[in-house]
Amino acid sequence: MNDQERYDRFLSALAFRANLDGTTPADGVDLTDLDGEPVDPAVRLHVCPRRLAEHVSDDEGVAPSARPSLDDDPDALDDAEAASLQSLLAQIEEAILVREPGKDHLVLVDGGVRAVSAEQVPA
After folding, report:
1. What is the tally of structural domains in the chain?
2. Is 8 helix (H, G, I), strand (E, B) or coil?
3. What is the pLDDT of residue 56?
4. Which residues pair with 115 in a beta bridge?
5. Which domain holds residue 76?
6. What is the DSSP string of 36-104?
7. 15-33, pLDDT tens digit by residue?
8. What contacts 115, CB < 8 A, 6 or more positions away?
9. CA distance 6 to 82
């Protein structure tokens, strides 16, 4: 799976749980609700295909889909990729639930997702 395919799969999974604003700007997507509950104010998740691939890579920089499975089962590779993306969805939900006022931007960081203010979003 290439970076764009991974990103598209991630957006599809995210859209299943969250109302995206209908656009996919270069620097991320806006989430207006999660699991049917409004996110007020909406948050912007700053993610792109490259950053998503880096985030779900292992410590050596290898994407889950590129790691060989123990039994060379292609489905196991899909399972690893799906687990990484599901974990990221849970991290996004947690960041939304515990964010402080004024921190309406979600960024991918080592070990998870952090809610930050607009001024703290990395360039």
Report:
1. 1
2. helix
3. 80
4. 106
5. 3-120
6. TEEEEEEEEEE--HHHHHHHHS-TTS--GGGSPPTT--HHHHHHHHHHHHHHHHHHHHHHHHHPPTT--
7. 888 887 666 666 789 999 9
8. 43, 95, 96, 98, 99, 100, 103, 104, 105, 106
9. 10
